[in-house]
Design goal:
two-stranded antiparallel sheet; GR25 family glycosyltransferase involved in LPS biosynthesis; alpha+beta; nine-stranded mixed β-sheet; Spore Coat Polysaccharide Biosynthesis Protein SpsA, Chain A; globular; Glyco_trans_25
């Protein structure tokens, strides 16, 4: 579990061929304790074997990069479940607040003992669906251009962050999953399939084409939380994404 006396190690998902993205991540987040497991190249995966082992349905329409990214996330869920440890996961475009370690410890200490997952940030080009208090739903809209213009201010910000109950979101640039949460995510999300994912009570139906889409099927039934204001952000540049629009 999380040791309150130590900084939380961050497991970064970064492909071997993306050395410049890793260099940028390490420069922006030089205060983090970073672990870099081997990220998965989707084009090298055997989809028939993944179907046989129950990770995907044989007809899954994920692009190769999206499947590789999903496999990398699921591998870290497996680590959390098998080793009975909390795992903090980041994609290589994440930008963390310099107050992350202190803020994260405060948030994690405030969660119920059986929490599943806490998102440290979400995509600012999409809505965020949450509960402001238990049973009272809310939909937030952000201004992504404003965020991109204030990255430096975000990084140096220190202040009060609170965990709110998560219903749905997009983006998994940074989150921590508990062993229980990892098991629950795998139970609900796997095998990855072409299912349409409904947001109950919101009239939203999305395709399952990325791992963050799949996770939306799980959030309502989990003790899932989102940190507000965020402790991690992404500029979310689709033109340089290793997942968006790639084959």
């Amino acid at each position: 579990m999380i040791d309150a006396d130590r900084n939380v190690p961050v497991h970064i998902i970064n492909l071997d061929r993306d050395a410049e993205r890793l260099k940028t991540f390490m420069h922006r987040n030089d205060f983090l304790q970073v672990v870099r497991p081997d990220a998965v190249e989707g084009r090298n995966l055997d989809r028939d074997e993944l179907a046989r082992t129950g990770m995907i349905h044989r007809d899954l329409r994920y692009t190769n990069p999206a499947l590789g990214n999903a496999h990398s996330h699921i591998g870290l869920w497996t680590k959390a479940a098998d080793e009975d440890v909390c795992v903090t996961i980041a994609e290589d475009d994440a930008i963390f607040s310099r107050d992350f370690h202190a803020g994260a410890r405060t948030i994690l200490d405030a969660l119920p003992s059986d929490w599943d997952v806490v998102l440290w940030g979400v995509n600012f080009d999409a809505f965020l669906w949450l509960e402001v208090v238990e049973g009272v739903r809310c939909k937030l809209q952000f201004e992504q251009d404003d965020l991109r213009a204030r990255v430096a201010e975000f990084r140096d910000r220190a202040g009060l962050n609170v965990p709110l109950r998560l219903r749905h979101s997009f983006g998994v640039m940074a989150y921590t999953v508990s062993p229980l949460g990892a098991r629950n995510l795998m139970k609900i999300c796997l095998p990855l399939s072409n299912q349409l994912i409904e947001f109950p009570g919101y009239g939203v139906l999305i395709e399952n084409n990325t791992i963050d889409a799949a996770m939306n099927a799980a959030y309502p039934s989990l003790k899932a939380f989102v940190c507000i204001p965020p402790l991690a952000i992404s500029e979310n540049r689709h033109e340089s994404s290793t997942i968006q629009g790639a084959k």
